[in-house]
Amino acid sequence: NRLHATDITSSSFRLVWPKLLSQETGYYSLEYAPAAEPARKRTQQVSGAHTSLVLSGLAPQTTYEVALVPESNVHYFPPQTTRVTTLAEEISPVQVLISESGPHSFQVSWAPVLDSVASYQLLYGPLPGNSVQVLEVDGRHNSTVVEHLAPNTTYLVTVTAIYRSGMEKSLSAKACTQEGERGE
Question: Fibronectin type-III domain spans which residues (predicted)?
Fold first, then answer.
């Protein structure tokens, strides 16, 4: 039951602490700085009524030293400290590759594969047109085969990375199916 962080993203986290003060008995002085650069310390005053606060605008993949100093006019409380490391920046898929294209299918692969991705969503539909199909792909995979397509058709394929944080980033590519065999 002490100062800790939850809801950590690449640029923010929520600090939660036990109720030590009340509105009447004082306030908290919150100090935080990147562990590697203590000189960049920022200080914030928080009402004694609060037991949590979101810090945002932080640098990705950075460890922060956080100290919560209860400024009480009744009791002395020792400062509470914690270290919190923000997540790596969430980058979008940087490339989408189409391969093994046949008259009725093609393979879509993408990179990089990131630990912070929960799943990928693939949207594809013929151009021009607005009929879109959706495929869900597990976040551990980086390719899938799209089937049941029309021959000699251009498709727009969009890969959306759905991050564990709820954020989404997309990248699109065009794919063409081969001409069908005669007699199809």
Answer: 1-90, 92-180
